[in-house]
Amino acid sequence: MLQTCYFYPFHLVIRAAAYTYAYSGWILWFSMLIPLVFCVVSVSFLLQILQLSLTYSIWLLCLAFSHGL
After folding, report:
1. Are 20 and 27 in contact (CB under 8 A)?
2. For the chain, how big is the Rg over CA atoms in Å?
3. Side-chain half-sphere of 11: how many Cα atoms within 13 Å?
4. What are 9-30's pLDDT values in tens digits?
5. CA distance 30 to 4
6. What is the pTM of this model?
7. Region for 68 from its dihedrals, namely left if φ exceeds 0, alpha if ψ lies in -120 to 50, beta otherwise
8. What are the percentages of helix, strand and coil residues in the chain, rounded to 5?
9. DSSP class of residue 23?
10. Nearest Cα to 58, choosing from 44, 68, 50?
11. pLDDT score, position 4
12. Which residues neighbour 55 within 8 Å (Cβ) at sequence distance 6 or greater?
């Protein structure tokens, strides 16, 4: 009886691992997809900020040159 109680959590872990292995394809795809989406969103956000700052700095330069600074 004691042995059964002792090995029961291991049985649950093995069962969970088997289910995880059965669905590991989907889990793997989602775990790869989430950082990829995050990376694409953050890169596009950074590019947008960079483009905005470049446009703003070019506009400031043009303004400075037009006023003869």
Report:
1. yes
2. 28
3. 6
4. 666 777 777 777 777 677 777 7
5. 36
6. 0.43
7. left
8. 95, 0, 5
9. T
10. 50
11. 52
12. none
Q: Which amino acid is at 41?
A: V
CA distance 32 to 26: 10
Q: How many residues does the chain have?
A: 69
User: Is pLDDT of 69 > 70?
Assistant: no
Quote the crossing angle between the two packed helices 24-66 and 2-22, to the nearest 10°.
50
C-alpha to C-alpha distance for 52 and 61, rounded to whole angstroms: 14
* Cα angle 66-67-69, degrees, rounded to a multiple of 5: 105
Residue 1: its H or E element: none
